[in-house]
Amino acid sequence: MATTIKTRPTGSRSKLPGLVKSLMGAAAFATMALTAPISLAEVNTTGLAVTEDTVQVGILHSVTGTMAISETGSVQAEKLAIEQINAMGGVLGRKIEYIQEDGASDWPTFAEKSRKLLVNDKVAAVFGCWTSASRKAVLPVFEQYNGMLYYPTFYEGLEQSPNVIYTGQEATQQILAGIDWVVKAKNAKTFYLLGSDYIWPRTSNKIARKHIEKLGLKVVGEDYYPLGHTQFNSIINKFKLKKPDVIFASVVGGSNVAFYKQLKAAGIDMTKEKPLVLTISVTEDEILGIGGENIDGAYASMKYFQSLTNENNIAFVKAFKERWGDDIVIGDVTQAAYLGPWLWKAAVEAAGSFDIDKVRAASPGIELTTAPEGYVKVHPNHHLWSKTRIGNAKTDGQYEIVYETPELIEPDPFPEGYQ
Amino acid sequence: MFADYSTSELMSIFAMQGFAGLILFSVFVLMALGLAIIFGQMGVINMAHGEFMILGAYVTYLTSNVFADYMPSLFGSYFFIAMILAFIAAGALGMFVEWALIRHLYKRPLDTLLATWGLSLILQQIYRSVFGAREVGVTLPDWLMGSIQLTDIVEVPINGIFVMSLAITISLIVAILMYKSRWGIQVRSVVQNRPMAGAVGINTARVDRLTFGLGCGIAGVAGSAFTMIGSTGPTSGQLYIVDTFLVVVFGGAQSLLGTIASAFTISQAQSTMEFFLSGSMSKVLTLLFVVGILMLRPQGLFSLKVRR
Amino acid sequence: MSYAGFKTLFPKSDLIGFAVLAVILVIVLPLAVDIFRLNLIGKYLTYAFVAVGLVLCWGSGGILSLGQGVFFGLGGYGMAMFLKLEASSPENTAIQSTPGIPDFMDWNQLTELPWFWEPFHSLTFTVLAIVLVPSLFAYIIGVAMFKRRVGGVYFAIITQAVAAILTILIIGQQGYTGGVNGITDLRTLNGWDIRSDEAKYIFYFLCVFLLFVCLGVAQYVRKSKLGRLLVAMREMEDRVRFSGYDVSNFKIFVFCLGAAFAAVGGAMFTLQVGFMSPTLVGIVPSIEMVIFCAVGGRLSILGAVYGALVVNWAKTTLSESFPELWLFAMGALFIAVVMAFPNGLAGLYSKYCEPYIKQKLKSFRAGRGGDVMAEGVAHERQ
Amino acid sequence: MSASNTDFVLAVEGLTVSFDGFKAVNDLSFYVDKNEIRVIVGPNGAGKTTVLDLICGRTKATDGSIKFRNRELTKMKEHQIVRAGVGRKFQTPSIYGDLSVFENLEISFPRGRSVFGALVFKRDAEVLQRVDEIADMIFLKDLLHTPAELLSHGQKQWLEIGMLLIQDPELLMLDEPVAGMSVAERRQTADLLRRITRDRSVIVIEHDMQFVAEIADKVTVLHQGKILAEGSAEEVKKDEKVIEVYLGH
């Protein structure tokens, strides 16, 4: 059932980005076989926006408002993936056309726009959303109108919708491996949990606390600050008082910048690892705002770093920079967003149809060997099997990867005892 | 919660916590001074105050890039140049805004709120178009990084000291300007009786423009300083606006001393509570405290009982 | 109501305005647009409730509240709590560790329904609470502020702080409130699917009906002596006080009325959009609501409705076609409203369109040789 | 003075108010009889307006008592004082410019003063008649439906007096009622005052000594918050202290 696309770097040809070239070389055969167009009646029985040679999809992210900072990378990744797929001949012989809508960092707007995409535009799939709140807002819409959403962000889990493919990690995948690693490699005994005050950090810290206590170790403090908070001197004093081995941080957005700058200024040198900072919220994107010198030495636990050296990623980073500029950085979510169109394409081709129900049925077990993060596979629970890596932040704003789980981690959105 | 610690450790922590409160105090003073002038003296509700601060931050970012590219040897001192440029840029924009918008609205204070809110949206979008939606990282000179080790535990962040000295300097300058200079007398006379001030030959339009420009300029300097401790992005300015207004209103809008006293009260309350409670709850309690006091004393902390 | 009373309440020019709005909302729009757009318009209309309340508070009474989102939110949350409880029946939530409570509570390790959720099992209670809780809250704020003569700018900033406090509280207490995600995934109302097209039509018309109820109440208040007192207070508060009125009571009354309108709007929002979240409570939406009112014309209750419709429609259209431009457009709109046409759309209408229409009517009547009716009602000034 | 204050409409005793240490009114005592017209004169800053502010509750007294028909006013709120029967006209005409003359008077009509009352208030025959009556008295009968902001300065003063009259107060306080009026208007006003003071007590602040002599039963001269002299217009005119501080220059 599964469609596999092998990566094989090929020589130069035309001005297509590197990755596309390689993908095209690989997929030429398969595409050729498929391009004998399958009749419209066959691939689209539910009235989606598919014609003889095009298929419409939606991109739904915030271009304006506070979340635009975070969501820009995802939009870029999704557009890149779509362009690459089109350059390879599209999906079932049809070029992908995208309709981009702005969620404006406002959850009702997300719901409104998703309804527009599904009801008015009848798109075959939507790539979008970033925050949990925006996903929660659109979820009933996708379930009601039977749409398909590819959601890129690492998130708290506790959800499994037949209408969503979660291309980022759920919390246990990201957190457990990270904590295991600091315990083993750094001999950590005490933890301080800090987060912005909303559902993802709170759930993540709950999972972290449970795991830490199961290991027989100690959580010495847990604190939350309102989103957008910019003064962290008090919490830094609490660190100094409690002297945790590990500061486990899930601060987001503008607060992040303030937190790391003030941590550094307060004389906590993260490169000395006393205490060690382990974050699950700072990707390369965030470092741009924080400044590499301010976060030098912190560890991050996620599935993707730009510095990964496998062939897929080298080609991906090259293509991304060719498309969006040299000074751009790619974070975990950007990569996960990039997977969305590819996973959808694979599922559609496996199903031989754009029909949502058939694509859904074909999705579990879909594999990508070309993913920048390496091999991924869709679990029946609609999340991805993936590896978790530990990166060590450097002054140039990149992570040096110091650890990688040997096996793919099974996604477990409803971990025992957490719901 | 303190059972496990020795007395000296506790003393040190309290010392540092007090210092954290002082830094917060300085931050509030810097945020609020510009607004205290604009809102307190001129009665203009400038909702774009945060955006003026962010303008200062972006100017600092640009200056740091210019220094890094062309004069790396002088990089250590770029911050002072940046603050001056930030003052000039924000002040100039402020004067332009006063000329284009505010001067038509002096009799309608609530309308200045709407107009400046519109202005803040436009500025945000300009920042986004020019600098991108992402936050930019401002590189600080090395001497501003790190902290001074006083005892084993007590460490004082250098940028905190810098922010504090800046707050003190600017407060002093403003106080001197307001209460000692000829211009200050003019400002205060315009505030108290506009027609009369005009009648005795004060160019009220010019005084207004300069006052507004000064308030915005101070916001720019504050924004420049905040690149050390906060984020610089198109919407970062929004983070400051509520706190800033509360500080000014709580202090009794017309009094600079009141603004400083209120910044002190609020910062100490917040930072003490933050130490004992979670960050969110202490924020809520601080706001409730301020609102509660304002209900009891609507004129703010410092206001003269005057004959009507 | 007697005919004369009706004439006083609705002078002819107002009556035409109401009729035109009714025709647009009840006949033209439902026929002209599909259900998706109509649902959007229904959503815009929920903001119109707030804007109408603001016309009373701000336009008539001079009290500018920057915290109307609080009341909109309280109303919306009330409705959402009822719907969420219905959606969280033990059968629907069987996979949870504690079935029968909303999913977000389960994630936050709550094992039983908090006490203040219990009464929201009852629809009657919910409907009452939607109106009464925000009104009571407004009453408390109003008493605290107006009895102490806090007004103008100070009132605006304090209400803004209240909006900030409530937002932080809702987000921070996510076990009880759903946190930043809000209360989502609302499906049925007494077993009736609220997401079907049929339900959307019904909610749209219910929303229009309730809006007209609010408009009627607002019109009654404005035409009553209380309405004239509000205008009088805006101008010469001391004179009203020294005419033997307890000024604060009147302010509290319109503030509560505005809050109740906003709450009804919030409840209709929840029903039509399908969820409620703290983003509708905070400072930004509260200021936007003031903008709807300002664009429509702060002195005209009908203008407020058009303001809410036009601004939101522009927002949707612009953000669909030029996402980068719409902030510029919004910003420019605010400035333009303040600088160029302070009485908003209604001001433009009465300045440019009304005289023209009147003249046309007159010449039409004259042409027919009919009687030119004398303007019987005393000249009502804005 | 008298053992009981009941004989007086208004009894002010030991009244003191200080603004940040400055005593604007200092240990002031005076008494107003039934149907008396009392005029308060004094140089600028003598505390005249402050005394009226204190009586009507606009300013809170630091010390002392104000008894109106034996009811203590210092503890009451402004609207309660008004309802008790004290009417106050301000120095600058304070009327509602956006409303018509009719509406100005109607709002002042003492009925429907609660929120609910205002909501159900009806413009019935009694209101119409009373408004007509007052409008006639204040020379504005033909201008009933004119927006008040279009009135002349003198007409505005009359309108405000009319707004007080419609409440039928027992004590009427007028702060410079003829300031800024033409000679003709002054004459009309004096006439009006004489007519309206037949069955009520009146306190008037006035500078114009000729006007004062024309209307006053008794004159109180204030200086620096204290009473300098009290008596008939003729008496105070002759008082040397008064001549020195007030009339002398």
Automatic annotation (TrEMBL), chain B:
Superkingdom assignment: Bacteria
Membrane spanning residue stretches: 20-40, 52-71, 77-97, 109-127, 160-179, 212-233, 239-263, 275-296
Compartments it resides in: Cell inner membrane
Pfam families from the UniProt entry: BPD_transp_2 (PF02653)
Membrane topology listed for this record: Multi-pass membrane protein
Keyword vocabulary terms for this entry: Amino-acid transport, Cell membrane, Membrane, Transmembrane, Transmembrane helix, Transport
Family matches, as InterPro entries: ABC_transp_permease, ABC_UrtB_bac, BCAA_transport_permease
Predominant localisation class: membrane
PANTHER family the record matches: ABC TRANSPORTER PERMEASE PROTEIN (PTHR11795:SF447), BRANCHED-CHAIN AMINO ACID TRANSPORT SYSTEM PERMEASE PROTEIN LIVH (PTHR11795)
NCBIfam families assigned to the protein according to its UniProt record, in alphabetical order: urea_trans_UrtB
Similarity remark: Belongs to the binding-protein-dependent transport system permease family. LivHM subfamily.
Protein name per UniProt: Urea ABC transporter permease subunit UrtB
Organism field: Gilvimarinus gilvus
Gene from which the chain derives: urtB
From TrEMBL, chain C:
Keyword line: Cell membrane, Membrane, Transmembrane, Transmembrane helix
Main location: membrane
Protein's cellular compartments: Cell inner membrane
CDD domains to which the protein is assigned, alphabetical: TM_PBP1_LivM_like (cd06581)
Span of the signal peptide: none
Spans through the membrane: 15-33, 45-74, 123-146, 153-172, 201-221, 242-269, 289-313, 325-349
Mode of membrane association: Multi-pass membrane protein
Residue stretches in coiled coil: none
Record NCBIfam families: urea_trans_UrtC
Name of the protein in question: Urea ABC transporter permease subunit UrtC
UniProtKB/TrEMBL annotation, chain D:
Keywords tagged on the record: ATP-binding, Nucleotide-binding, Transport
Residue ranges annotated for the ABC transporter domain, each copy included: 10-249
Keyword field contains 4Fe-4S: no
Record-linked InterPro entries: AAA+_ATPase, ABC_AA/LPS_Transport, ABC_transporter-like_ATP-bd, ABC_transptr_urea_ATP-bd_UrtD, BCA_ABC_TP_C, P-loop_NTPase
GO-annotated molecular function: ATP binding
Superkingdom as given in the UniProt entry: Bacteria
NCBIfam families the record matches: urea_trans_UrtD
Annotated PANTHER family: CONSERVED COMPONENT OF ABC TRANSPORTER FOR NATURAL AMINO ACIDS-RELATED (PTHR45772), HIGH-AFFINITY BRANCHED-CHAIN AMINO ACID TRANSPORT ATP-BINDING PROTEIN (PTHR45772:SF8)
Protein name (database record): Urea ABC transporter ATP-binding protein UrtD
Species in which this protein is naturally found: Gilvimarinus gilvus
